[in-house]
């Protein structure tokens, strides 16, 4: 084995030496040497050039070019420079051969020398390829900077932020004439509690399908930053984001991420009366105890599908939430399918109304989150499991969601508004109010009942509407008497005329509307006078709202009693 090893090295060394001597011969005698090597290659294979592709034929025929080209190249140099150039090239070839032979017989030493030389001479010769040493600081600078939402502005470049998806709205379409634009709205928050709105338009809407799911965390970068035209009262960040095809969205699955706060700012059930019948929108959470069947109703002459669900929280005040349109067909049906488990919902941006004593209604900007994956919802679900029997009694047996004594219990004096303040309020800014004062019947009346729609309780004339459809709710009207009584309330600042309808009027009069409907006019007038004597100068606490156009026109009373209690 050792013998063969040395034989291979000597053969390789002899081949290298012969090559160098022949290259030296070419340098000093280029014309003779090139013609000779060409003849040696082509004579054994006379037809080789015709069997090969054109580019290969060019390479084989190339030696015939060098005998002519090399003398011409060297002829441009002076005679003494030509000799010096040949000796330099010859010395370079000899040195290369000697070094290769040294590598063959002493590979270990030669390898180390090669490695040492390559760090000095080989790297600078990479002329066309820029080879710069790796700089860790420049690589860190090129990565996106992880910032909070409050630090991202129009001038920020190369940013990235960790957000928690608070709201994810469905795809909507806005139309202006013949032009329509589809969009989808989102609401993000970070560990500071700062929230930002984001919007996706048209072709970019499908790009977020399966992403930006509620209550999940995502890394977002390279979104377009735009300034808000007007800063909302509860907003501390003056920009909104536009998500486009260049935006990077990646779900955050890292362990040990910062705990993000609960963003919704839920309203308590016992404070809903402060914002009833106003433009203020609230967020509320509750367990759905019952889902009533869907129905078709007319609202301002437009037919729409509605569904009432009854929700409740730890305060044990069941309240109606009305879903309509897409909210009924999507979230309403999802809730209906989960009623066996009494799902938890979070309703965002809903209105408080007094159409059904005190109830909630969806707004076009509302979002209903069914079974949200948050700690507060899990705690409410555990409370519901422990109190399910009491909740069933409140909703199914007592129907507490229609009882004013449950939804609007008496308040403290600090909550009461003076009559002068009620009369001086702007009708567009002011909602409902609690007032307290001495009460008397406004003026005598032949009867203390009126005909109304049995579905929406709107006031109608019996003779002209019986057997027709209600103009308010679109349902058929039949004989339905409803009690009423007009009162004047006095306090130290002034007086105001109000009207009590339905159950509140029957509570003040002491008899039902059906009984008064069956009585004669003389009996009704005698009853009215007796009630007037009983009520006169009594002191009541009343929760009042602005009367509907029909009530205000027919009874000339600006305010309607929602709930009343002895003061």
Verbal overview:
Mean pLDDT is 76; it is low at 31-49, 55-74 and 108-142. It is built from 18 helices and 21 strands. The radius of gyration is 46 Å and the shape is elongated. Helix content is 34%, strand content 27%. By secondary structure, it is α+β, with helices and mostly antiparallel strands.
Structure, briefly:
The protein is 34% helix and 27% strand.
Give a quick set of tags describing it.
single chain; 567 residues; alpha+beta; 9-stranded mixed beta sheet; 5-stranded mixed barrel; 18 helices; 21 strands; elongated
Task: Tell me the number of strands.
Answer: 21
**Rg measurement, Å:** 46 Å
Which stretches are low in confidence, meaning pLDDT under 50 for 5 or more residues running?
31-49, 55-74, 108-142
**What can be said about the biggest beta sheet?**
9 strands, mixed
Structural class: alpha+beta
How large is the count of helical segments?
18
Q: What is the helical fraction, as a range of percent? A: 25-40%
